[in-house]
Design goal:
Blueprint: E1 3-4, H1 10-19, H2 24-36, H3 50-59, E2 60-61, E3 67-72, E4 78-83, E5 89-96, E6 101-104, E7 108-110, H4 119-122, E8 125-128, H5 131-144, E9 161-164, H6 174-185, E10 197-201, H7 205-214, E11 218-222, H8 228-234, H9 243-256, E12 262-268, H10 276-285, E13 291-297, H11 311-323, E14 328-330, H12 355-362
Helix pairs in contact: 1-2, 5-6, 7-9, 10-11
The structure holds S-adenosyl-L-homocysteine and iron/sulfur cluster (SF4).
The site of S-adenosyl-L-homocysteine has 17 residues, from β10 and β12.
């Protein structure tokens, strides 16, 4: 069976080369070719002995998920759709800014966690992405953006930051996620600093502890509510890991984290979680957790049942947090014209959890009328 070499971090690749009777420096050379230079053709790896290249052609591939589409928004945001097989597709978004370029990548085909306001959550879950499918999004985007990562030559990087904020819950796919994170950090691969790689989680507490031990990177936690009563409804995983446990997990994570704060993401839902009282309750909730807040104006999708909070409400909410001493930013919505904004990523998922069917049968969708998901293809 051929091995897909994008599935391996440095240790994994060294072990695979050892199995083939090859030295570890060969693994490092191939790692650099693949990730630093974006090379997928063994024949082009010119400083590798021809005999080894021929062997690799028979035993290995460099196979990211193929690109289905690549759309450019008016504001420069670029959205890629990748084919992960069996009718499933995932999305990746590149967001250029003045001082950085952020790639938002997906970790699962769909998501099993059913957050009420999330388009990915609404369409159900199919499967975890492999390490190759996760890192392959960065590999493909680097090539498409016309610049191999310049980790050692000091050149400008087009992709300077990676956020795991696309489709799926990264910490529910821990074993495939960690090698991909290690590749992002590896100087022989993408060479990003730990502070520039962010995992966003809805709050899977035991996996937060595992991440701190295995590969601490910057952490964003999707909070969205100040009380268990409301969070149980908006982010159902809260029923398993309630707010007190989540706050304690954030504190534990910070002992290992590359930054000295956690970023709390908070989607602003009109009339649901955006009152002055909610903001004050948040100040109380996070009093012992060094943190910043990132307020996300809700991005609508068909039959979501929610509305975006008015801009004035968001400003007032932010000012209460700021006056309470918390650095608070409001996320600019980008890429709306190509459905690339947070929570709008729909990809294409054959729902193995049969959630779309259940929703249709029971009318359990929030809007009551929800009967399946419109795909943004
Ligand atoms: N599963 C992870 C990461 C992916 S979602 C998590 O939940 O953190 C990335 C962010 O987008 C999360 O904070 C999520 O709550 C938010 N989000 C989801 N749907 C949204 C929507 N419709 N509008 C705005 N933000 C949304
Ligand atoms: Fe999954 Fe995150 Fe969407 Fe919740 S917000 S359903 S955890 S992708």
């Amino acid at each position: 069976m051929t091995a897909n070499l994008l599935d391996f971090d440095a240790d994994g690749l060294t072990a695979w080369f050892a199995q083939q009777g090859e030295k570890s420096f060969r693994a490092r050379q191939v790692l650099r070719w693949m990730h630093q230079r974006g090379e997928g053709d063994f024949n082009a790896m010119t400083d590798i002995a021809k005999s080894l290249r021929e062997k690799l052609l028979l035993t290995a591939t460099v196979s990211p998920a193929p690109t289905i589409s690549d759309k450019l928004s008016d504001d420069g945001t670029r959205k890629f759709l990748f084919d992960v097989g069996n009718g499933n597709a995932v999305e990746t978004v590149f967001i250029p800014e003045d001082d950085r370029g952020t790639l938002c990548i997906s970790s699962q085909a769909g998501c099993a966690l059913e957050c009420a306001f999330c388009s990915t959550g609404r369409q159900g879950f199919n499967r975890n992405l492999s390490t190759a499918e996760i890192i392959g999004q960065l590999w493909q985007a680097n090539r498409a953006l016309g610049h191999a990562p310049a980790s050692n030559d000091g050149g400008e990087r087009i992709i300077s930051n990676v956020v795991l904020m696309g489709m799926g819950e990264p910490l529910a796919n821990f074993d495939n996620l960690v090698p991909a994170l290690r590749l992002m950090l590896d100087d022989n691969a993408y060479g990003l600093s730990r502070r520039r790689v962010t995992v966003s989680t809805s709050g899977i507490v035991p996996a937060m502890d595992r991440l701190a031990a295995a590969c601490p990177v910057a952490l964003a936690v999707s909070l969205h509510a100040a009380t268990d009563g409301l969070r149980d409804k908006l982010v159902p995983i809260n029923r398993k890991y309630p707010l007190a446990d989540l706050m304690a997990a954030c504190q534990r994570y910070l002992v290992h984290a590359p930054r000295d704060f956690v970023t709390f993401e908070y989607v602003m839902l009109d009339g649901v979680n955006d009152s002055d009282a909610d903001a004050r309750a948040l100040l109380h909730l996070v009093r012992d957790v060094p943190c910043k807040f990132n307020l996300i104006p809700f991005n609508p999708f068909p039959a979501s049942g929610f509305k975006r909070s008015p801009a004035e409400r968001v400003r007032r909410f932010a000012s209460i947090l700021i006056n309470g001493g918390i650095v608070t930013t409001t996320r600019k919505t980008r890429g709306v014209d190509i459905d690339a904004a947070c929570g709008q990523l729909a990809g294409k998922v054959l729902d193995r959890s049969r959630r779309t069917l259940r929703s249709a049968e029971t009318g359990a969708g929030l809007a009551g009328t929800f009967a399946g998901v419109e795909l943004h293809l």
